[in-house]
Specification:
21% strand, 9 helices, single chain, Protocatechuate 4,5-dioxygenase, Chain B, alpha/beta, 274 residues, 3-stranded antiparallel beta sheet, 11 strands, globular, 6-stranded mixed beta sheet
């Protein structure tokens, strides 16, 4: 079975799905650049729990966890099913790593999960299991969780972290407004660290860089990239696939991690070279 990369995808504001944003167009093409996964394991910034949890309902609901957006967004659904085999395998891998996991048979897919999935895999026919983010966790913990889950990539499972490379809702501007210098500076720091494989610097967030607190007044939207990194870092390949901004202060950059020799990643590298 072909090894899949692990991905970090920016999900943006809820209206990304009805926009003509360049990030939406990138996500619309993403499935064409990867072998079709057997299943997807996704972690979103919008589900934090005191104990790591997995969605276990056969057909989780679509959670419209936002207010004040166009009414058409509340009519959207993502009717994917979960996968019992992936649930048990994920629990086993995390248990081996000393991470307790509980099952949540009520939780549905929040917009951090269903927005990028609806744009990338609109048929909703691939099984999807959502993993919660441990409340109060840090970069090292999320990276270690990703390392524990890395074997799933060899089993046809696409691991996705969903968040934002910059997420400051206090300084949002009208859509189309250029990103401020501090946002660009933070994204450049992230890009440079990943390109140079400077894991030590990456793990020092949010103490560094100096733009970190402004780019992420709260860190939950940035932590999912560390799980994606951990799942693919040992492969030696890390590339930015897309780079844009939404509403000025939401970073929409997307990244892939894995092996440079994987035929799964090579088309992405060529087509979305930064």
């Amino acid at each position: 079975m072909t090894v899949l990369p692990s991905l970090f995808l920016a999900h943006g504001a809820p209206d990304l799905v009805i926009s003509d944003h360049t990030a939406k167009r990138f996500l619309n093409r993403l499935a064409d650049l990867l072998p079709r996964p057997r299943a997807i394991l996704i972690i979103s910034a919008h589900w934090e729990t005191t104990t790591t949890a997995l969605t276990t309902a056969v057909a989780p609901s679509t959670v419209h966890d936002f207010t004040g957006w166009p009414s058409s967004l509340y009519e959207l659904s993502y009717p994917a099913h979960t996968d019992a085999t992936l649930i048990e395998r994920t629990k086993a891998l995390l248990d081996t790593a000393g991470v307790p996991v509980i099952e949540d048979a009520v939780r549905g897919y929040d917009h951090g999960a269903w927005v990028p999935l609806l744009l990338s895999y609109s048929d909703a026919e691939i099984p999807v299991v959502q993993l919660s983010m441990l409340r109060g966790s840090n970069t090292k913990q999320q990276f270690s969780f990703g390392q524990a889950l890395a074997p799933l990539r060899q089993e046809g499972v696409l691991i996705i972290g969903s968040g934002a490379t910059v997420h400051n809702l206090y300084e949002m501007s009208p859509e189309g407004t250029p990103a401020p210098d501090w946002a660009e500076g933070f994204d450049q720091w992230l890009f440079d660290c990943i390109e140079r494989r400077n894991l030590e610097a990456l793990l020092r967030f949010p103490a560094e860089p100096i733009t970190a607190q402004r780019a992420h007044p709260s860190i939950e939207h940035f932590l999912p990239i560390y799980l994606a990194m951990g799942a693919g870092w040992d492969g030696g390949f890390a590339r930015r696939l897309h780079h844009s901004y939404s509403y000025g202060s939401i970073g929409m950059a997307c990244y892939a991690f894995g092996h440079s020799t994987d035929t799964t990643i090579a088309p992405i590298k060529e087509r979305f070279k930064t």
